Amino acid sequence: MSMTATVGRAHADPHHIGRAAEHEGPAPKRIVTAYGFWIFLLSDIVMFSCFFAAYAVLSGQTAGGPKGSEIFDQKNVAIETVCLLLSSFTCGMASIAADVRNRLWFYLSMAVTCALGLIFLSIEFREFADLVARGYGPSRSAFLTAFFSLVGCHGLHVSAGVLWLLTMMAQVFAKGFRADILRRMMCFALFWHALDIIWVAVFSVVYLLGSGA
Amino acid sequence: MLGKLDWSAIPFDQPIPLIAGAVVLVAILAVLGWVVVKGHLPYLWHEWITSVDHKRIGVMYILLASVMLLRGGSDAIMMRVQQAIAYQSQGYLPPEHYNQIFSAHGTIMIFFVAMPFVIGLMNLVVPLQLGVRDVAFPTLNSVGFWLTATGALLVNLSLVIGEFARTGWLAFPPLSELSYSPGVGVDYYAWSLQISGVGTLVAGINLVTTVLKLRTKGMNYLRMPMFCWTTLASNLLIVAAFPILTATLAMLLLDRYLGFHFFTNEAGGNVMMFMNLIWAWGHPEVYILVLPAFGIYSEVVSTFSGKALFGYRSMVLATMAICVISFMVWLHHFFTMGAGPDVNAIFGIASMVIAVPTGVKIYNWLFTMYGGRIRFTTPMLWSVGFMVTFIIGGLTGVLVAVPPADFMLHNSMFLVAHFHNVIIGGVLFGAFAGFEYWFPKAFGFRLDERWGKIGFWFTFLGFYVTFMPLYIAGMLGMTRRMQHYDVAAWRPWMIIAAFGMALLSIGVLSQVMQVVVSIRNRESLRDRTGDPWDGRSLEWATSSPPPVFNFAFSPDVRGEDAYWDLKAHAKQQLLESPEPEYRDIEMPRNSPTGFVCAFFATIMGFSLIWHIWWLVIVGGIGAFATFVVFAWRDHDEYVIPAAEVARVDRINREERRNLVSMAGAV
Predict the structure, then answer these.
(1) CB contact (8 A) between residue B260 and residue A47
(2) Which of B102, B121, B157, B402 could be bridged to B434 by S-S, CB 3.0 to 4.6 A?
(3) How confident is the model at residue B666 (pLDDT cuts 50, 70, 90)?
């Protein structure tokens, strides 16, 4: 008998289903962390899907207020989209820099990611402020309620992402590329890319479909 | 400065909540005083409050659930008494108080009794059954528990400061909108569920990752104990369904706080969207609760029949089938709201289809018992009682799933009887069975069987006497949530139900008594072998209570019923595994993060409810600071030296050697 206690052999796997791939035991920490964070992201996407569903139900309910095609500015949205997609690229650069332990490139890519995120947020904020100033705030109609909530929820996530990004930069500055910091960096990168995916959906469902209608 | 909060928030004119609140406050202060005076505070802080050990967190979950069961049960007693005496009279409860009671009863029983009870049992048992040292994210686990506790605290605060929702446990708009519920009741409801919902989501992510990524060597999917499978299914449902609740409550709160129009009557809001969203969460929620209970019955029935679970693979299939189908039936909660016959038919059939895998499970338990050597211990009594009771509940469920029948029965006492039938007979009986079954594992001594059986019989009979009359009252046309009524035919059934409530209460008190008596006699009830029931899965392979690291070395599993096979092998060969080479073990460090998070969450929740905006900001900054401080720590693990592991394990092995030699002698 081996030094690790062997448990159970009386009627081991009569159909030989388990033979093909004998389970090797607990996964390494990096895998476990990433896996758990993926599951969180999926749950977050479920939450977004509710706001998408609400938008789909309410997008025609303008209650005498403006329609989507009357308030969406496609140039703004195009700039926003470019910022966010580019920031996903620079975030990828930051991940690579962290993997090869290059501090300069890490700080640089993270700083650019942060700047692009902030530009995105400021454009979105201006769009919102402008709409409110024209009397088209979220309480004007159910359509605007759903629009502000869906887009705002994404914006909130980006804001949280920026806070997290700054915390990550500070952590690398103070502690270097430690294993646990790298795991967190991986989660942050997953989060940032997921925001991009959600933005593609927002862009298509809200702005593209809305401008046509 | 204090937002909407002033002295009028405290209901000085209502004696019942004030007296109840005062009694609870005195009790809490007495316990706190005793803890401080006796010098137990450091022990509590270091060993429990800051603990990240899954077993301790599981025990705290169950403790929270038990305390809240008494609170929710008191609400139930008040309602049954009210309906027994409110025939052609106002009864003793004013309408607005009665409405708060039934809303609080439902909210508390689902979110703060059933949920923490099953999550606590899963936390306690699943890592042990999988042969691992802890869950995937131990500190997060502690955060999840303490956020649940925050939610429970807010609900109880509403008893004395302000009011609770008068809307029913799902707060349907437009009743829950600001124009119809201008008080803070709905805000208490929504914020306490938002905060505890985050805790539940965290627990779900944690357990899914644990089951999928942390199993010990050789623990293939089709060797996992049934409870691990149902845990996986239940937590997958949590991860998929709880974000819907979060989003729905967020929309309701936006309507209430910022004048949005998701569910309002005016400006294009859509009330039916709330029904769809809340039940898209709410129906899976039922299975989130009952699937772990199914797992518990599987473990209990197989252990006390001395047989492997019949049809293990069909059981796995049935579990996952229920997991999927439970997402496709939500609309049966509003058959009568005009979705049309086609939609109703589809959802009616889907609702009936879910009875098929459930039936598979029932037959599997029956065939597990067939030809087995059955021991009627208390957990086994709960399981058999469940099978009888749950079948009745399931059959009435299929009845209500027929849309034409539902048009007659919806919102009636029949419905109330049906869901109490399945939730008490399914979830609560399962929770009690699991409590009795795993108590010796958690604390190292068994529970007193005599008081346990008394508790079972009173609860079992009390359940039937309480809820069968409600079926009849429903058939006689009585609707739910009635504060008083004038129909003479209903009255006898309400009186019988109130009598049944008394029997149920005796059952609950007997169970309290059981714990008290067992603690007093703990020396004679001591479990020295770690395996008091002759169990079959790995949690019985370690000592009771298990050491903090659970297993001195990682078990290598070679088949189903891992521990049973090991024992059978040892008995046949009259030998045992040689001592392994002990290694240092790294365990996660205790952390106050969870408690501190909950502290700030409580502040934020309370100040949001009362519109104290500066305090909201303080709470938010505190929460972010906690996050940064937690991220900044350098050492999150400590090492248990091999010598210490060996010392602990040798004691356990000595006890086991005695067990095996005694079994050999027999």
Answers:
(1) no
(2) B121
(3) very low
